[in-house]
Amino acid sequence: MDTTDMARTLKRRSVRIGPGCQAVRLPTGWWHLRWYDPARTPTQKQHALDTDDEAIALSRSRERFDRQLAGLYDPWRGSGRAVSAEEAVRVYEADHADRHRPKSIRVAAASVRALARSVRPGPEGRWDPAVADSGCDPSDIGIREITSDHVRRFVYRPDLSRASQLSYWRRFRAWFGWAADRQLVDANPVDDVPRPSAVRAGMKHLSRPEIERLLVAIEHHHGPDGPVPPHVRSRDRYPLWARDAFDLYASTGLRRGEGIALRWRDVVYPEDSAWGVGYIRVEDEGRVNGRRTKTGRSRRVTMIPRAEALLRRLEAETRRTSDPDEHILKGADGIRVVSEHTLSHNFRRYRQLAKLPDVPLHGLRHSFAVELLLRGASLIQVRDELGHATVQTTERYLELLPAERARATAALFAGELGT
C-alpha cells in the first residue's frame, strides 16, 4: 500500500495555530491552513500547505500566522474577484512555463478545460458527454464553481479505465493545490474526492525453459553459425555480457539496482562460509549512484548451485583485478559498469528476439521466487531471500503457482497425441 492509500485511512485532525487560524489534516493526509473571520467575505479561507508531514505543516502554519499578525500577509487577498477557469489555466501556464515540460503543461491545461466544460450537468445531474463536448466555453465557468462533485463525476466517468481515472485524479489534485496556493480557489475540491484504486500490475515472469530460450537466443545472436564459445573477447569486448547478467538475475532474484551494485567482496563461496553454504551479501550501503536497498535492510541471498557455477566462471573469465570492490556485472567493453537503462533495453531486445512473452527484466526476480516455491521453499524462506519487508508481499507469488504447475504437467505429456 503506497503513502496515498495509507493517508486515506487517517482521521481528520486540526491544530489551533492562533485566533481564527488552525492547521487541518484532511482524510487524504495532506495539511491545509484554515482561516476564519466573520467580518470578511467569505468568512473562511483555506490554503494548501503542500505537505503530509505534521511538523512541516505546523512550521509553515506558524510562519504564515506570524506574517498575518505583522500585516505582511492577508489570506483573503485577491478573493473579491471571480476568476474564470480559462483565466486560471492561463495563469497556470505562465507560472509553470519555466518549470515543467511543455507537454505536461498542455496536458494539465487541457484536462482542466475539459473539467470546466463538464460543469454543466446532463439529465438528472449525470455525466453527459454530449453536453461536455458541446463547445461550452471555459471562460464562462468560474473556477470557484467547480466543486468536488464535478471532479468526482468527471474522474469516475464510465468510459475511463481505472488507470485514466487515477491519472486525472492526480492531475486535478496537483492543479487545484496550485490554485489554492494562488488563492484562486478557497480549497482544493479534490480533497473530498476518493482516490481511484490503482490497477494492480500482473506478476509477469518467465518459466525456467523460457529463461533457457532467452540465454540460447543471445548466444545464437552473437554466433553467425550457431552458439558462440562460452566467452569470447574481441578487441577487449565482452559480447555475452547480457547473457551472463540475465542468468545472474534469474539465479539470485536480485533487484535490478542490487545486481548492478554487486561487487566481488559481496560473494562468499561455500568453502569460505562458516555454514558451508555460499551466499551473496546485499548490503544497505555502497549502492550505485547512492542507491540503497528498496526496504532499507541488508540481507544474504543463498548461493544456489547454478549461481555458484556462474559466479566462478565470471570470476575466472571477466574479473580484471584482485580489487574486492570491482563490480561483477560489466557492459560490452568488459570494463565499465552496466547501467539500468542498458540492462532493461537489452532485455527487451533479446526477449523479443527469443519470441518470449512481454515480461520486464524484473520478471526474472519473480521467476526466481516461483522456482523456490515450486521446489518446496516456505513463504518465510522466500521472503528472506528476496528481502521483502513483509510476508504479505511474498504471498502474491502464490497466485502464479497454479499456472506454473499446469505448464510443468503439460510438459510431461508433450510428446503424446502429436502435441
Structural overview:
The chain is an alpha+beta fold and 419 residues long. It folds into 3 domains: 3-69, no CATH class; 85-192; 208-367, Orthogonal Bundle (hpI Integrase, Chain A). The protein is 42% helix and 8% strand. Strands 1-2-3-4 form a 4-stranded antiparallel β-sheet. β2 (21-25) and β3 (31-36) form a beta hairpin.
In the predicted model, the low-confidence regions spanning at least 5 consecutive residues are 1-9, 121-135, 226-236, 285-293
**Name of the CATH class of the largest domain:** Mainly Alpha
Given the helix and strand composition, which structural class is it? alpha+beta
What is the CATH topology of the largest domain? hpI Integrase, Chain A
Helical fraction equals 40-55%
Q: Helical segment tally?
A: 16
Task: Give the tally of β-strands.
Answer: 7
Average pLDDT, to the nearest integer?
81
- Please give the order of strands in the largest beta sheet: 1-2-3-4
Strand count, sense and barrel status of the largest sheet are: 4 strands, antiparallel
* Ends apart, CA distance between termini: 43 Å
User: How many domains is the backbone divided into?
Assistant: 3
- Beta-strand residue fraction: 5-15%
Shape annotation? elongated
